[in-house]
Write a structure and sequence with these properties.
Elements: E1 6-7, E2 20-21, H1 39-44, E3 49-50, H2 60-74, H3 78-91, H4 122-135, H5 142-156, E4 165-166, H6 176-182, H7 190-198, H8 204-210, E5 218-220, H9 243-254, H10 288-292, E6 294-296, H11 308-315, H12 322-325, H13 331-342, H14 344-359
This protein binds protoporphyrin IX containing FE (HEM) and calcium ion.
Protoporphyrin IX containing FE binds next to helix 3 and strand 5.
């Protein structure tokens, strides 16, 4: 019965290419976590389902959407924050809400790992969770909240709607070292980025489309500062940077025109990286003022479809991160950049499918996992 249905986006969504056929659903979550599972348990594992909470908490997805919408109206940076949060969760040991846990005895928090220190949006997830606990106690997982909130955020940012299975359960661990080692670095070359995504089952095409998420949000100077003057010890800027764009980034990041600083009306819940933790993630100089500075992305400019301007900018050498601009370094990925720059609906469709796949990575389903009462603490 799954094959023929088409999921229409809720009427409040206005995205143009907002139809994704349910034919596109993988028949099962892409890679169910089989860690530490004996074969009998594997047989009894439940699958994710479409509208998993239809009886236990039918209003769950509406509540998530309403709270995301509310926060988005107050602070437009909520949508990018939630999309990035879900990516950082799903990439490390799957979509199990591991990224949301606070440090506790015997538990090193992923939040404190350098690549995660600029994550935001935790407060929005907690607000959703506490409302859901009022409405249907101990039913809806933080892992589901995270991917659904990210999906709704994509729509609010002008991206495509995509249907999601639910029924994920929360993990009871957080993987700080793994987050440090395995989250892609903004300084990585293309081969490294592709290998990192390929190890989670993503093709080159899917990887190029997922990076289209960088159409929205805020990038701090510290993540691209090393491209501006002395790239990889060469004493010259990153040669792949457009010269005018280089000037802009330099003036924004070092000049006296600091009006762009990231004084966002946001509580990030995390402090800047201690210098001792500078790593492959934080290259170059990171004075405290530089920690603060950054550029809000305006790739999503009015009149330009979600994603299109990001890819057009890469064609012009105007990617913020080395990892972004590297998509142009190889013919294979460059071909997809060109295709998405020309055809916004092709991108939106590919992005929707890749986000569905990302949201299904290594999920925990009953009888594994738990439902937390508070997303930052193990139940
Ligand atoms: C090679 C892969 C990737 C790298 C190296 C990377 C790195 C980064 C970095 C360094 C930032 C800036 C954070 C800051 O300044 O605070 C950022 C922002 C962001 N990333 Fe990625 N990212 C990658 C892939 C992705 C993917 C696959 C997604 C989602 C599907 C994503 C979504 C976002 C979003 C939405 C933002 C803006 C966040 C905000 O404004 O709060 N990124 N990314
Ligand atoms: Ca995780």
């Amino acid at each position: 019965e799954r094959g023929s249905r088409t999921i229409r986006c809720p009427s409040s969504y206005s995205s143009v290419s907002s139809l994704v056929s349910i034919d596109s659903f993988p028949s099962r979550p892409v890679s169910l976590s089989m860690k530490n599972i004996v074969p009998e348990e594997a047989d009894s594992l439940q699958s994710l389902e479409y509208d998993f909470y239809r009886e236990s908490c039918p209003q769950a997805e509406q509540i998530i959407r309403a709270i995301v919408q509310h926060h988005h109206q107050v602070r437009s940076n909520v949508a990018p924050a939630l999309v990035r949060l879900a990516f950082h969760d799903c990439f490390i040991e799957g979509c199990d809400a591991s990224v949301l846990l606070d440090a506790a005895e015997g538990l090193d928090s992923e939040k404190e790992s350098p690549p995660n220190q600029s994550l935001k949006g935790f407060d929005v997830i907690e607000a959703i969770k506490s409302k859901l606990e009022e409405e249907c106690p101990e039913i809806v997982s933080c892992a589901d909240i995270l991917v659904v909130a990210a999906r709704d955020s994509v729509v609010l940012a002008g991206g495509p709607f995509y249907p999601l299975y639910t029924g994920r359960r929360d993990g009871s661990n957080s993987f700080s070292d793994m987050a440090m080692d395995e989250l892609p670095s903004p300084h990585d070359d293309l081969s490294k980025t592709l290998a990192s995504f390929a190890s989670r089952g993503f093709s080159e095409r899917e990887t190029v489309s997922l990076l289209g998420a960088h159409s929205i949000g805020m990038f701090h100077c510290k993540f691209f500062q090393n491209r501006l003057y002395n790239f990889s010890g060469t004493n010259v800027p990153d040669p792949s940077l457009d010269i005018g764009f280089l000037d802009l980034l330099r003036s924004r990041c070092n000049g006296i025109h600091a009006s762009f600083s990231s004084s966002l009306p946001y509580s990030s819940g995390s402090s800047p990286a201690p210098r001792t933790l500078q790593s492959r993630f934080h290259k170059g100089s990171t004075t405290s003022s530089l920690e603060e500075k950054g550029m809000a992305l305006d790739y999503n400019k009015p009149g330009s479809a979600f994603g299109k301007f990001y890819y057009q900018s890469l064609l012009e050498g105007k990617g913020f991160l080395h990892a972004d601009q590297q998509l142009m370094a190889w013919e294979g990925t460059g071909t997809w950049v060109k295709a998405y720059a020309l055809d916004a609906s092709l991108f939106q469709r590919d992005f929707a499918l890749a986000m569905m796949k990302l949201s299904n990575l290594q999920v925990l389903t009953a009888p594994l996992g738990q439902i937390r009462l508070n997303c930052s603490k193990v139940a």
